[in-house]
Amino acid sequence: MDYKTIYEEAKQFGETNDCAVKAAAIATGTEYARVHRLFAIQGRRNRCGSQQHWTPAVLEHLGYEMENITTIARLRGARTVRSAERVLGSGTFLVRVRGHILCIKDGEVQDWTAGRQHRVKAVYRVSKVGEEAPMISEPSVVRVTVNPEVKTGKAVPMGKRSVKSQIHGIANEMWNAAGCPTDVAVLRKLRKTMMDVLEQQGVKRTSASTELGQWQKGVL
Questions:
Q1: Distances 101 to 71, 84, 114 between C-alpha atoms, Å
Q2: Amino acid 197: pLDDT
């Protein structure tokens, strides 16, 4: 089941805002009409979006389950739809971006966002209940720790790196060490710590604040 097939089936319903229906149909290899009915049972109305908890409920009815692997996918480099297509490899995955959900199946984006730079917010592996599906391996960088020199506030030789590179480099290092959180409240606290560390290394707080704001947009 691919996006083109599902897209043609969906035309008969005159639907819009049905990305969750399409993604679930593609992920499970189920005809659009059946998945459409199951979402309607959950409470979805025609030409209206879906609540996030409806998708796992529909998949469960079809004998599938979703596993959140966002942290591992991010550490592997799945930051955009385009990069996720390269990173995820074999298997079936549902990927959430802002206001949209899509399916990536065996390394191919089954959606109109293929090749786009939409920022990935969450990644879920989809598999049949009780069946072990292919899984992207957990990379060694999951255990990344903050450079001891960063922790103590000692100056790190910068060479030819710009202030922007310094800020983003330390931000990424500390974010990885914290487990790659995406919760806004957690990021806000982590950002304050980053600013303290950067200030100890001679970076102005105004510069750090501006660049960390740009860095945070790339994480969310």
A1: 17, 13, 12
A2: 85
